[in-house]
Each structure stands twice: as structure tokens, then as C-alpha cells.
Amino acid sequence: MATFVSPPASTTATQPTGLKPTVIEKEKVDYLNLPCPIPYEEIHREAFMSLKPELFEGLRFDFTKGLNPKFALSHSVLMGPTEIPSQSPETIKIPTAHYEFGANYLDPKLMLVGRIMTDGRLNARIKCDLSENLILKSSAQLTNEPHMSNVMASFDYKGKDYRSQFQLGSGALFGASYIQNVTPNVSLGGEVFWTGQHRKSGIGYGARYNNDKMVATGQVASTGMVLLSYVQKVSEKVSLASEFVYNHMSKDVTATFGYDYILRQCRLRGKIDSNGCVGALLEERLNLGLNFILSAEIDHRKKDYKFGFGMTVGE
Question: What's phi and psi for 265, nearest 5 deg?
Fold first, then answer.
């Protein structure tokens, strides 16, 4: 007698009737409400913070005393060698000492900064918010040496998703720049300039891409300069940066790599480039308003070694 064997039950899961599959929709970009980009002159800001620390040689002491919440005085002393220009490959240095007196006025809509040194040099900066969107910036460097003083003024306009700037300077210098956000992460811009004193003009273009983890920038100018930079944020305290500079006129190429490490009580920045130059800057916070600074730089090609240490007192 033949026996009937029923087929095995299907193991394929079936979707209950009435339920639709889940579809993840990509977030749409509102191109009419893009964020405002950073100024065109600051598109390499993150890379410069890591690759261009303020290195010095010798002894440095800075003291800042606040007289009220808006006004403060500063005193700075720098003792160390100064390089003398020469045609020989060896670096010539002479020992020097400088004292600098400064005054700062800081207000939400007005900033005044002045510095005067014992050799007669005077530096001044002004930043004034004329309106919510228009900012006036001015800087001046005055000295006793003939034809070495210069003055610069600029008007910055901040739009909804763009920035523009117009510059005027001594020596018949005129310049203008514009940068526009085309996506939430990409901004494009350009600049033009004219120097009447040297009868030279130029035009440049720049691009910047940034997100939560990295920043990539590129800049090219008719003067033959090409500048590329990349910053990778490894963590909240560690950033790695690289830079590539090419000069088409002189055929010079320089590649630089650097790091920025922020600890609880100190900040360490360093760099190394393809010319054999290595530098590092350590800023240690010893106490509230008291910082210790160590600076070191070695140029293996020129056989030039620089070392400096200093203290910063005051906030």
C-alpha cells in the first residue's frame, strides 16, 4: 500500500498582509537656506593652525593686565638673535632685545589693538561692526624706515550664504574677493587684485570642502601659485594636517605635514616639510592665567637651529 508523504513546510518568511516595506528617504538639501561660508582669506584656517605655529627663538615673556572687562594693557619682552639678510648660504645672527607695550579694547562691536616697540615700530588693528552684515577692518604698520610703512583697510559683507570683501591699501593696492556656499559642505570663491605701485594684477580661485571629520581646500592664482591643504580630525583632541605648495614661476615645490594635539593642560603642535625643516611648539598651562611655552625649529638644509622658551601671564 502506497503511503503519501506531505512536502516540508516552506522556510521562507512571508511579510504579513497590509505592511509596506520600509524605505529610507535621503534627506533633501534646501539650497535656498545654505549656511554662510567662512571668509575667502581664511579657507585654509584649520591647516594654518597646525602647520604654521608662532615659533620664536630666545626668551619671551608676555604679561597682560585687564583694567576692566573691556580694556587691558600688555607688556612683552623678547631677547634673542635676529637674522641679518646676506647672500651667503650661512645664516648670520646678531643678539637683540625688544620691549613691546600694547593696549587692547574689546567690545562686541568694536575691537582696538595697538602695539609699539622700542625701535619705533607701531602696529595697530581696528575691527568695527558697522551693521549686522557689514564689518570694517583696518591695520597699519608704521616704522622709521622710509617706504616700509603700510596701511590696509577692508569692508566685509556677510550675506545669507555668501561673503564678499573689498580691500584698499597703501601702494595703490586694490582687491576684492567673493565666496559662495553651493552645498552645505562645499564653497567656491575667487579674488582679484591690483597693485599700482608695482603695476601687477592677478586673479585667483579657491574651493573648500568640510564636514565633521575633515577639511579639504584648494587654491590657484594667475601668479603661478597652487596651494592644496587637507586636515583630518582623528578625534576631538587630535588633528593631522598636510599642505602642498607649488610655484610655477620659480618651480619650487614644498610639502608639509603637521599635527595638533590638545591635552587637558597643554597643546602640542608640530610640522615637518620637504625642505628638511622640523618645528614644534608646546603650550603648557601651569595654572589659571600662567602658561609655559617651548619652541624649537631645525632647518637641516641651512644648518640653522632655533630654540626658545617663555612665559605668559594673564588672560
Answer: -120, 0
* Contacts of residue 18, Cβ cutoff 8 Å, sequence gap at least 6: none
Reading the block at residue 109, the C-alpha cell is 562691536
Residues 6+ apart with CB under 8 A from 45: 38
Averaged over successive runs of 10 residues, the pLDDT of the chain (315 residues) comes to 45 50 64 90 93 93 94 94 77 88 95 94 95 95 88 95 94 94 95 88 96 95 95 95 95 95 93 95 93 94 90 88
Q: Give the torsion through C-alpha atoms of 31, 32, 37, 43, to 10 deg.
A: 30
- Cα–Cα distance between 2 and 25 in angstroms, integer? 57
Instruction: Tell me the CA distances in angstroms from 197 to 154, 172, 174, 201, 301, one per residue in order.
Output: 19, 6, 11, 11, 35
Q: 271 near 281, Cβ under 8 Å?
A: no
Q: CA nearest 170: which of 140, 190, 199?
A: 140
What global pTM score does this model have? 0.83
As a whole number of angstroms, the distance between CA 113 and CA 107 comes to 11
Spell out the residues 6+ positions from residue 75 whose beta carbon is closer than 8 angstroms to its own.
Answer: 62, 63, 64, 99, 100, 101, 102
Kindly report each contact of residues 288-294 with a partner whose C-beta sits within 8 Å and lies 24 or more positions away, as own/partner: 288/315, 289/313, 289/314, 289/315, 293/60
